[in-house]
Amino acid sequence: MNLLLLSNHQSATGHKALAFVIEALGLKGQVGGYIGSEPDPEGDFYRATQAFYQGLGINLNTYLDFERGFNDTVMQTLLDKPLVHLSGGDTYRFLRGLHSRNQQQKLKSYAASGHLLVGVSAGAMLLTANIETAALCGDSNTVGLENLKALCLADLLFVPHVVHSQSRDQSHGLSQKQRAKQLAKRHGLPVYLCSDEDALAIIDGRLHCFGAPEIIMPEAIA
What CATH number does the domain containing 132 carry? Predict the structure, then answer.
């Protein structure tokens, strides 16, 4: 299984991690697909991401979202490509769309076949067991999503956009790190606190860390 979990793909570390994975999997010169967390009617986010990938030798030539931009035929076209990018955005809305279109198993099968799933921020959290960590980076469940189960492809939980110097700040109640510890204990999974200069790559099942993510291990919690 090949996964890349990024806090910010446009950071220096994000670029380095993506370049590493593309090289490791021999994807340079290939095509890829893009799944947006919500509709992008003007295509601004899609085009910016296309340009970024073009600089790495990937033609991101298929767009899809799970709302009004959804089409079964386009979804199949996307799944025929060796790389799919899951965008950032509203994590709860993204997962609601995934559930409403019932595309979980298709993406799981895609990953199991050895293709690369790249998740950025919200997209990265979708690759993990659940998106409860979205609340730790400021997302609000404005769509009223009750089922927070994600794709369960990575055996970990992911918190993006962490400012490590502030993760212990308790001025607004429980610190981000304390809340991460609660989630690690509840789910029996490690929680990776990642700044925009951190990234996680899973290549053929082996985890590679970029930057200096802070790891909360469940067995270390009394």
Answer: 3.40.50.880
**pTM value?**
0.93
Determine the pLDDT at residue 84: 99
Contacts of 213 (CB under 8 A, 6+ apart): 192, 193, 194, 195, 198, 200
Domain that holds residue 215: 2-220
Measured between alpha carbons, how far is 114 from 9 in angstroms, rounded to an integer? 21
Give the position of tokens 């601004």. Answer: 44
Mean pLDDT of the region 116-143: 97
The answer to whether the CB of 129 falls within 8 A of the CB of 155 is: yes
Total domain count, the chain: 1
Residue 220 has pLDDT above 70, yes or no: no
